[in-house]
Every structure is written in C-alpha cells, then in structure tokens.
Design goal:
The chain has helices at 54-61, 93-101, 121-134, 157-170, 179-184, 203-213, 216-231, 239-252, 257-271, 276-299; strands spanning 2-6, 27-31, 48-49, 52-53, 68-71, 82-84, 108-113, 138-142, 148-156, 188-192. It is of the alpha/beta class.
C-alpha cells in the first residue's frame, strides 16, 4: 500500500514551518561514506555549499535527534555524533544503513544522505508527522520527477530491522544490495518536496545549489547560518531588529557606525548572558540612542530660535 502527502518546501536556511512537536524521541542515521565517483573522487560530504559542508548542513537539520549516527570515517563536524562503518567499507547503502541501525534505540528513525543542501529541520519534522499520522512503515520524500528518495525518510525502526534481517539472511549479508529491495518490502507514505529532496551527485548539482543559495531571497539566512556554524554559536536572533539598528546608526550618525554598532550590540548581549532577549534589549537601547542622536543634531540647526533645541530649559 502507498499513500501520498503533498507539501510545499520550506524557505532555504530558515526554519519557521512544520510541526515542532514532531521531533521528539527519534534517532537519525546519516550515510556519508560514498566514494563520490561522479565528483571525480572528491570528498562529497565535505564539499561546502553556502559556506558549510554538506554533511554539516544535514546534521543541522536533524540536530534534535536523540542519537545521530554518521556512517563514514570519522571527521570534524559542527556537532557531536556517533560514528559507525559498514564491514567491509564501501558495501553500499543497505550495508551502511544496517551498520548505523545497530547503534540506535528509538522507535522512529530518520535516514538521510549527506548531500542534501536544502534539507531543513522542518522537513524532518514533516516526515515524522507523516509517519505517525499514516501508520505505515515509513514516510519518504519524492523528488521533482516523482522518484522515491529512501535516504530522505523517517521509518519505524522495528520495520527496518525486520526487513534488513530478512534481506541479510536471504542474500548472505547486505553488501551490494540496492535500496529498492528495502523499499519494495515496506509500506510507505510519499511526501512530495522537490527542493528538500534535491541531492548533489555531480559538480553541476553543486553549482546549482550554490547559485540558489546566493539568490537574494535566501542569501541572508544562509550567511547567518554559516557564520553561526563557523563561530560555534547556537542562537536565534531577530535579524530584522539588527538590520534596523545598523540602518539607524548609518543614517543618524555615519555609515561606518553601522558595522561597529552591531558589533557593540553583540558584545553587550554576550556580557548580559547572550540570550535572544539580551540581543533584543541591547538593540532597542542603541536604536533609541541613534534616533535621539539624529533628533539632537536636527534641533540645533542654524536658524533655530534660542532655547528651542532639545536641550532647552
């Protein structure tokens, strides 16, 4: 049996939609051990798109998983994960999935490839919500052509264990078996999302992803996400408020005041505990100061009547 769920894609780099309650008590397995043959042998999980490695982008999307297992040789990542490897290495996606599954305990499992530049946390939650609502063995994305993407999916862990055990017994292990063997044995729900399901198999795919991320509508969110990742900051702030502060400083004081003022806002917020509320309060104070600065200057222009400026009285 197959059911379908249609869904619009989330905005790139911005996590503002989806069922926030859907992320509870799941594990994640990320397959990152491919050879990258279509990239000329390049280290695909480490290729940077929008300032972040593809693997780190996927790990951000499943950051609230109880346990995250990456099946690949260990490497530095933006957040701590557990590492696993299929035996022998290079045994294919089913063998890698089996190796990762060995380290999980949650009843629900999100399975992801490491080459999904537009995957976000909202898509992960959407898959989990579809899984729970359907009662099927799993919920997976379909791409722009309607093809199944079994490595962008949420599964019931028991169903995966059952099918993988049967396949392993019937074929003397999982090495070399194609993913379609798994899909054929499961009752699945399809979730349409041509953006989040986009994967990077070739350099043309990577170029397309980089170009999309640099589009005007996405570049700010992507840049902020990349900067936070590079600085090790996990903080959601009101970007519009910070831009307003920069604008007020530039217009009311001088153009170079904009970057220096936003730096001071961040520094003051860090001294006050570094919360989003601390950032908002520092921004409010400085914005008010910039506006009063401009009003003060305007009130003292030549021609003002004596005693009518802002300091009169």
């Amino acid at each position: 049996m197959t059911s379908h769920e249609s869904s619009g894609h989330e905005s790139i780099g911005h996590d503002s939609s989806g069922d926030r309650g859907a992320a509870a008590a799941y594990d994640a397995v990320v397959l990152a051990g491919g050879a990258g043959r279509r990239l000329g042998g390049a280290d695909k999980p480490g290729v940077r798109v929008g300032g972040r490695a593809l693997l780190d982008r996927v790990l951000t999307a499943c950051a609230d998983a109880r346990t995250t297992v990456v099946v690949a040789d260990a490497r530095p990542t933006a957040r701590p994960v557990r590492w696993a490897r299929e035996d022998p290495p290079g045994g294919g996606p089913l063998a890698a999935l089996g190796a990762g599954l060995h380290h999980t305990t949650a009843e629900e499992l999100v399975v992801l490839s490491a080459d999904l530049p537009f995957l976000g946390a909202a898509t992960v939650r959407r898959l989990l919500t579809a899984l729970r609502a359907s009662g099927t063995d799993g919920a997976l994305l379909t791409d722009a052509d309607g093809r199944d993407q079994p490595l962008v999916a949420a599964y019931r862990t028991d169903a995966l264990r059952r099918v993988l055990a049967a396949l392993s017994t019937g074929h003397d292990g999982l090495t070399g078996l194609p993913l379609r063997r798994l899909i054929a044995a499961l009752d699945l729900t399809r979730v349409q999302d041509p953006v989040a399901s986009f994967d990077c198999d070739t350099w043309d795919d990577i170029a397309s992803a980089r170009a999309r991320i640099r589009e005007h509508g996405h570049v700010l969110d992507e840049w902020i996400s990349a900067a936070k990742n590079e600085l090790g900051i996990d903080l959601d702030v009101d970007i519009r408020a910070l831009l307003d502060v920069a604008r007020d400083a530039a217009h009311s004081v001088a153009r170079p005041a904009a970057p220096l003022t936003t730096f001071l806002v961040g520094y003051a917020a860090a001294q006050a505990g570094g919360s989003p509320e601390a950032v908002a309060e520092a921004a409010r104070k400085v914005s008010a100061l910039a506006l009063s600065w401009a009003e003060e200057d305007a009130g003292d222009k030549p021609g003002d009547a004596p005693g009518t400026g802002p300091d009169a009285g």
